[in-house]
Specification:
The chain is mostly helical. It is built from six helices and no strands. The longest helix has 15 residues.
């Protein structure tokens, strides 16, 4: 008998929940493109290849994070590359090359990649 009473209560609770898309909308102050993707900071690994493409950044570790992200892109570690570029942007939101890196890490999601490029134009 208790199971019969519990089932309608469970169903009504499930029906009252908002769709997942509505919950996710707008939680990032950096723009819609940041609503998806990794949330945890990417640490410097030191094992993503010997790559150095000089960029302009105001953060002392910014170059290291950019080089790491670039190495991760070349190794097809797109999720980790996005973490590296996001770490850079958290400290230097005006680093246009980090937005470029985010767009490259999302090459399979054209809409999101374009949003990152658009954001770079706002910040430079």
């Amino acid at each position: 008998m208790k199971r019969l009473l519990t089932l309608p209560l469970l169903v009504s609770c499930l029906m009252a929940q908002e769709p997942a898309e509505e919950i996710k909308e707008g939680h990032s102050h950096n723009g819609h493109a940041f609503n998806e993707g990794p949330r945890q900071a990417g640490p410097l690994m030191g094992t993503t290849g010997n790559i150095n493409l000089p960029i302009t950044t105001s953060w002392d570790k910014g170059q290291a994070y950019f080089n790491q992200g670039l190495g991760q892109l070349h190794g097809f570690w797109y999720y980790e590359a996005e973490r590296s570029f996001r770490a850079l942007l958290a400290k230097d939101p005006n680093c246009a090359m980090a937005y470029w890196g985010l767009s490259q890490a999302n090459y399979e999601n054209e809409k999101r990649a374009k949003e990152f490029i658009t954001l770079s134009l706002i910040h430079i």
